[in-house]
Write a structure and sequence with these properties.
The complex is a heterodimer of chains A (about 230) and B (about 240). Helix content of chain A is about 20%, strand content about 20%. With about 230 residues, chain A is an alpha/beta fold. In chain A, a hairpin with a 5-residue loop joins strand 5 and strand 6. Chain B is of the alpha+beta class and about 240 residues long. Chain B has a single domain (about 1-215), classed as PAC-like subunit (Rossmann fold). Chain B has 6 helices and 11 strands. In chain B, the strands form 4 sheets. A 4-stranded mixed sheet of chain B has the order 1-7-11-8, sandwiched between helices. In chain B, strand 5 (about 60-65) and strand 6 (about 70-75) form a beta hairpin. The radius of gyration of chain B is 19 Å and the shape is globular. The chains are: A alpha/beta (about 230), B alpha+beta (about 240). The interface between A and B is large, with 45 and 54 residues. Chain B: Forms a heterodimer with PSMG1. The PSMG1-PSMG2 heterodimer interacts directly with the PSMA5 and PSMA7 proteasome alpha subunits. Chain B: Keywords: Chaperone, Nucleus, Phosphoprotein.
Chain lengths: ~230, ~240
């Protein structure tokens, strides 16, 4: 593509197609590449207690649940949680909403944390966090232990979203489960016939599955608006 | 199976939107995949209040039994390093579901054309050897142009030619994999640039129609395709009156 100044540049594509990245993918794997990949895979599923190599930290997500006894444990071998309601808040605003209006130390207890790392943020496995930290914590309602809440203020990268989804929901019993996802988007991203300047903001919109039979408290999201990333996953 | 490649200008995907919307196809399933960026929205082909609340996600399958047509629509970009796994999974699904042939709608960067390609039609096709035997003759009758190969080492050695589809996303990978797996695949692509790609989508879908005859081709074919409601506001919202 030629710019107005006459220089020829590679045009970025809205479709997310990046030729350089593509050329990398197209290179044939040499036997050395395959060996390196095998080693990385072995290290990803390391024995408990061994320090993780940097390569696996870059991608892997760990969900750690605090059981009644107070000991932390990996989630995979445990029985699925019996859960009737699961509320997930994604992003700083939604997490802050829960902190301000819902959560308190009397009615809710921390039951788990997600540990992840990406170029934008890192979470830890400590459950005492400051509001300015990036964190992803799970809470349970003491009076009804089947009500779970997740506050996720950290950014979950594109290639981690599916893993987050599988690991978190993999711990829960899915029959009779009602999931509510809270998230925020900039008003400027909202597509509407009028200009967004005249819209009374903030405003609520919802998306629901066919199976959700209850009343929704706000209008449904109109086409052509969409939701992406972790809330969508 | 008719599907798009996520490629320059999203032309393949727009063309697929036109096919699904015009033929009023029914959604029959979706791909649960970690290879595409997640997204969700309400039914993009909604025509009335009643059918506008069905959720829609990033990779869904539609069908029209009367034409033995199955369409896959892809609505988000690929996640880094996931091109190959997606192609492999897709092709094994094609084989296991005994799909007769696959048609891939795609596009390629217009600025990469050579002098000869700048003249004449911007539309091209490709056929895997297995499909060449079946429909090669038809392509000749339609006077379609096959996608040219380019020199592997331009300037150094012009004899070795390779297929090069810049901006085509998974097009080349799917095509070469299909050739080696004996799958009957056709690629229909248009040279284009980023911008308002709606006319490109119409051109591509009319090109497809010359072959498949999905709708009756009249003189003014662009008016025969139904634009889905989700194409509204492609280029932003209304303007604030205070601007003037």
């Amino acid at each position: 593509m030629a710019t107005f100044f006459g220089e020829v540049v590679v045009a970025p594509s809205r479709a997310g197609v990046d030729d350089e990245e593509w050329a990398e993918e197209a290179r044939e794997d040499t036997p050395e590449d395959r060996e390196i990949r095998r080693e990385l895979e072995r290290k990803r599923y390391r024995p408990r207690g061994a320090p993780p190599p940097l390569s696996s930290l870059l991608w892997e997500i760990d969900v750690l649940w605090t059981l009644k006894s107070g000991a932390s444990t990996e989630s995979s071998a445990d029985e699925p949680f019996v859960c009737s309601k699961f509320i997930v808040a994604v992003g700083h605003n939604a997490a802050a909403f829960l902190s301000s209006f819902i959560l308190d130390s009397v009615c809710w207890e921390v039951v788990g944390v997600v540990k992840l790392w990406n170029e934008w943020c890192r979470t830890s496995n400590t459950t005492t966090v400051l509001p300015t930290d990036s964190f992803c914590l799970f809470y349970r309602l003491i009076s009804d232990p089947t009500v779970l809440l997740c506050q996720c203020s950290c950014y979950v990268a594109e290639d981690q979203q599916f893993q987050w989804l599988e690991k978190v929901f993999g711990c829960m019993q899915k029959e009779g489960l009602q999931v509510t996802i809270l998230s925020t988007c900039p008003v400027a991203d909202y597509k509407t016939q009028e200009s967004t300047l005249t819209l009374p903001s903030p405003f609520l919109k919802a998306l629901k599955t066919k199976e959700y039979k209850e009343q929704v408290c706000c209008p449904l999201l109109e086409q052509p608006n969409i939701v992406r990333d972790l809330p969508a996953a | 199976l008719l599907q798009p490649a996520v490629s320059v200008g999203n032309v393949g995907q727009l063309a697929i939107d036109l096919v699904i919307s015009t033929l009023d196809m029914t959604k029959v399933g979706y791909f649960y995949t970690d290879c595409l960026v997640p997204m969700v929205g309400n039914n993009p082909y909604a025509t009335a209040e009643e059918n506008s609340v069905e959720l829609s996600i990033n990779a869904e399958v539609y069908s029209l039994p009367s034409k033995k047509l199955v369409v896959l629509q892809i609505r988000s970009p690929f996640i880094k390093n996931k091109y190959k796994p997606f192609c492999q999974t897709l092709l094994s699904w094609v084989k296991s579901s005994k799909c007769a042939r696959v048609i891939l709608l795609s596009s390629s960067h217009a600025y990469q054309r050579d002098d000869e390609q700048l003249l004449g039609t911007p539309l091209r096709y490709l056929l895997t050897p297995d499909l060449e035997k079946a429909v090669g003759g038809l392509m000749q009758e339609l006077s379609w142009k096959e996608m040219e190969k380019v020199a592997a080492y331009p300037g150094i050695n012009d004899t070795e030619k390779v297929l090069h589809i810049p901006g085509g996303g998974i097009t080349k990978l799917l095509f070469t994999e299909s050739c080696s797996k004996g799958i009957q695949m056709a690629v229909l692509l248009k040279f284009c640039s980023e911008g308002d790609n709606i006319p490109d989508a119409f051109a591509l879908v009319n090109y497809l129609n010359e072959w498949l005859q999905l709708i009756k081709s009249e003189v003014n074919t662009s008016s025969q395709w139904k634009i889905p409601s989700s194409w509204r506001l492609l280029f932003g919202n209304g303007l604030p009156p205070a601007l003037f």
